[in-house]
């Protein structure tokens, strides 16, 4: 406006009465205004693109973080499931009962089923305490042999219903994935069973989606979770008598809620305290019918009571890679209003929130991994390492191809006539003998190597850096120490010991090393027991 006043003054005092200078200045002003608007538009477009790009990156990172929570937790369960299988199920006495149940007469099958249930009842009760939902044996034809959660239901064919059972038995390999079952849905860990090279069937250790929701809720208390599964999957798979455990999801057409999960989770999105969340999810589902129709994973940022909320929809697929369910997670974003008003500062705050959450996730993962690592690698009765851990120790000394990195000795010992101790003095005394032997071996191993319980009344010592003569002498010390040890109740205990060395020409790999020690141990038994054979 000041420029216009100056031009007008010049015009009035100028003897040349020409309007031309005024007209030129007006055009220049218009041009400057146009350029300014263009610049602001370009700057606004640049800022908006930066905002959109940052938001998309953030939303993608949040989706990755949500998936990481799920799969990290599943990895922990898988490690523990492997431990359960190796230490409690993949044992000869258990496999013998399965073999009888699969190949015996009807009476023999029924007897094997009862004995198997009795043999593993304590194990089943224990795994329930760690949020596992079921233990289920199947024949190699895919028929249910024994459901520990419903022992009265057996004989039904699962081969065409459960891909995990079909794959484990036709391909004879470990199978892991999500499935809806006749009674429960969940993530299945299915192992093929063999005895003396003969395929018997399979066994399943599984966790329910409810257990997974509970675990994530305890690790990440700010998250609100729920699980919905396609109603047609429930109709086609679940026993009709069990379908009452599901109800139509009021916020998600075509999907059902597992009532068991709703009753277990203290913070299900549709609990009374979180009832408004149902309408939030319903709105997102309605606005994204194309994505939900495809069964795609996605997330959305929305507002509830003036607070921004991030909602993740993680697609759950079965073993055929078909979408069957959604795991939905919600959490509030404390600085959420910034995104709502397109302020770029929010990008940094959200990234800081993500990285803080990521660091917290790693911390919680390491903590849980350490706890499960101790449990998975330790024999509970003796306190020694278990067979699973010892095999990892042997693997660490293996070279690529064949051979070993350094000389080492493997000492395998079996307590002589241990069954007689159990029969005459009871299992409690037998357990005491195992425990005392474990303590003695731990003391003897000291800094020389590692002692572990191999299984039953068998123990193993691994001595890296030992030559064969040194290892044999050490084994003799072990034998003498057991023979002279003052056991409870004045029992006289001896052990037969086999020794193998990585320097032996017939031990090019781990299995051969173990087999040689085992062979030598049985030579010691046949030669009269209480001997060392190398």
Share of helix, binned: 40-55%
Average of per-residue pLDDT values: 82
CATH architectural grouping of the largest domain:
2-Layer Sandwich
Number of helices: 17
Q: What number of structural domains do the residues give?
A: 4
Low-confidence stretches: 1-24, 263-268, 271-275, 336-343
CATH topology of the largest domain: Alpha-Beta Plaits
- Derived from helix and strand composition plus strand pairing, the structural class reads alpha+beta
Describe the protein.
- The protein has 534 residues and is of the alpha+beta class.
- It folds into four domains: 24-84 and 344-368; 90-207, PAS domain (Beta-Lactamase); 210-332, Beta-Lactamase (2-Layer Sandwich), CATH 3.30.450; 387-533, Reverse transcriptase/Diguanylate cyclase domain (Alpha-Beta Plaits), CATH 3.30.70.
- It has 17 helices and 16 strands.
- The protein has a six-stranded antiparallel β-sheet with strand order 7-8-6-11-10-9, with helices on both faces.
- The model is unreliable at 1-24, 263-268, 271-275 and 336-343 (pLDDT under 50).
- Residues 406-534 form the GGDEF domain.
- It comes from Bacillus selenitireducens (strain ATCC 700615 / DSM 15326 / MLS10).
- GO terms for molecular function: diguanylate cyclase activity.
